[in-house]
Amino acid sequence: MEGRLGLLYHLVREASGRRLVDIGSDHATVPIELLKSGAISQVLVTDVRKAPLLVAQKRAKDERITRGFASQLTDGLHDVDLLNEDVVLISGMGGETIARVLENDLDKLHIPKRFILQPQSKEEVLRRTLAELSLNIREEHLIEDEDQLYLVMVCEKEDNTQLKGDPLDYFFGPRILQKLRNFENERHAIDPTYRLYIGRRLRRLMKASPYDPSSLELLEQFKDRFEADKFVSYNDGDQ
Length: 239
Hints:
Elements: H1 3-15, E1 19-23, H2 29-37, E2 42-47, H3 50-62, E3 69-73, E4 86-93, H4 95-103, E5 114-119, H5 123-132, E6 137-145, E7 148-156, H6 167-172, H7 174-185, H8 192-208, H9 213-225, H10 229-232
Parallel strand pairs: 1-2, 1-4, 2-3, 4-5
Antiparallel strand pairs: 5-7, 6-7
Helix pairs in contact: 1-2, 4-5, 8-9
């Protein structure tokens, strides 16, 4: 597997969990591939709608998967019995929607081994919510796939690193900014995907700053810490 799905596959596999719980699974591509490869022994795919679950069940049947595959009709984490060795995947939703899923089941958030979150938008809302819920971001990955740029966050219960509540971290990503600092300190060329991501975020602030004081403040804070011109010129459009 390559691209976005390949990255999700890798992040589930490296966690060495016993079961993948895929919240809002559509075609169940990642869970099925993990079962086929033997990288994980059990998967539970869930959705709030019956139709996507029927598609996932059919795909599992077509792949002749007879053991380890289960599905559940439910909203988010509601009614899902999570285990300590579970890896929870929530992908392909807006950041606000993922935040709502987490907020709706607070008592379950520190049970799974790992959360893998792939927001399609509003990642700053999700990062702020994660900080409020004490779910710390261990890693942030960026990957281009078919001319789209995707962000994937990894949270683990063993990670005690706390976000400082810095709005700049919420907007750009604490691990992404940390990576930029490392690039600069080590005098390495900045990875193109990071340039692209930061450029798009900066362009968004620039568009909003004339009428939004908070956007202007974030823009000035970034300029105080980094050379913004490196990133804006690399931007290929708004995101």
